[in-house]
Write a structure and sequence with these properties.
about 75% helix
């Protein structure tokens, strides 16, 4: 889990990778992983 401050400090590439991960989890309808990331 990343805090908002952690995400703000990430590089553009790291944010893009995190976005890809979240979108993949949503596409796979994996609510458990999604809830874990969004804590």
């Amino acid at each position: 889990m990343k805090t908002l401050e952690d995400i703000k400090a990430m590089s553009y590439q790291e944010k893009d990778e995190l976005e890809d991960l979240v979108l993949e989890i949503i596409d796979n309808n994996d609510l458990v992983k999604l809830k874990d990331i969004l804590k």
